[in-house]
């Protein structure tokens, strides 16, 4: 079972940047799609970005043009570069492999991102 640990969150002013990292406990080369999710207080967890093994990416409209997802299979890492952050980006961010409406693996602790106005 793959274990995922997210890091890199923090408090940032609107317009700022953060780079989130997700470390997997095992090789992720065979995991075709990896994604970043976020969950704000009172909201459901939502998928904001995904990346395939071939490097194809997809983004939610709310983050398109501001967030960039990448992966390094050799290092067992997935990254989310976030620029132009807005207060509405405030949430706990998680990585996982998308499966139906949830994730394929147990959820990690997440990393808190707080954007002040």
Description of the structure:
By secondary structure, this protein is mainly beta. The chain has strands spanning 4-7, 10-13, 18-24, 33-39, 46-52, 57-59, 67-72, 77-82, 91-96, 98-99, 102-103, 111-116. The chain has a 6-stranded mixed beta sheet with strand order 2-12-9-4-5-6, with no helix packed on it. A 4-stranded antiparallel beta sheet has the order 1-3-8-7, with no helix packed on it. A hairpin with a 4-residue loop joins strand 5 (46-52) and strand 6. The mean pLDDT is 96.
**Nearest-integer average pLDDT:** 96
Number of strand elements: 12
Proportion of beta-strand residues: over 45%
Quickly give the structural class.
Answer: mainly beta
Give the topology string: H per helix, E per strand.
EEEEEEEEEEEE
Biggest sheet, in brief?
6 strands, mixed
Shape: globular
- As laid out across the biggest beta sheet, the strand order is 2-12-9-4-5-6
Catalogue the unreliable spans. Answer: none
The Rg value, from CA coordinates, equals: 13 Å
Estimated helix fraction = under 10%
